[in-house]
Amino acid sequence: MRNLFSVEGKTVLVTGGSRGIGKMIARGFVEGGARVTIASRKQKDCDAVAAELSEHGHCVALPADLSTEAGARSLADAMAASEPALHVLVNNAGANWGAPLADYPDSAWDKVLALNVKSVFHLTRACLGLLTKAAQPGDPARVINIGSIDGLRVPALETYAYSASKAAVHHLTRVLAMRLAPDNVTVNAVAPGPIESKMMAATLERFRDQIVGSCPLGRIGEPDDMAGVALYLASRAGAYVTGAVIPVDGGISAR
Predict the structure, then answer these.
(1) Which of 104, 162, 232, 240 is catalytic?
(2) Is 162 among the residues known to form the active site?
(3) Measured between alpha carbons, how far is 231 from 242 in angstroms, rounded to an integer?
(4) pTM over 0.85, yes/no
């Protein structure tokens, strides 16, 4: 039982790992003894966070622009050059865009869906060879997609492309889970609620009291909440879970 939630020695790639939820998850894996690579678009930020997390274990940076298929393939090739196999892929990189319905630009749809949905598909496919090399009977390789409770219920804010993209991520997770199960690769999604992060900062500054009031557990999510569910899905404890979308929202989506 001591090893049930262990990820020690596993190779992990976390996209969008230089801030917010990605950094929370990356830190959990690093402190759990995994070999972690974080990827994000800005090399300076990526290098700085990798250096910070390296104080707690193994963490390296691979800057990447995942808004294109070529960028996803380039990241997968870079991983293959540095690691023989990939035990865990965390598809976390994403973007948001809010605007009134009458003013919502077409460019928002292009940007948000390219990064939030297409990059999940492109990078998972590009990394499949590395994932299957890591997969073992009883200990499959894992893909963890970061969705949102905004893809489970109608959000209060006008983030049309974002909420639609996260609903798409949830269903893509189920589709990939069925397709990759014979390859001994599990695919699950996490649907975070309000978490203390840079993306949520402006919203929490304006609506913290209302959000806390709407949460059955009466608080905003913390870094350990995100790290914990990722470690569960990546460890032996989560080896028989695939095609699931797990809300981590203090019960908000259950209302």
Answers:
(1) 162
(2) yes
(3) 14
(4) yes
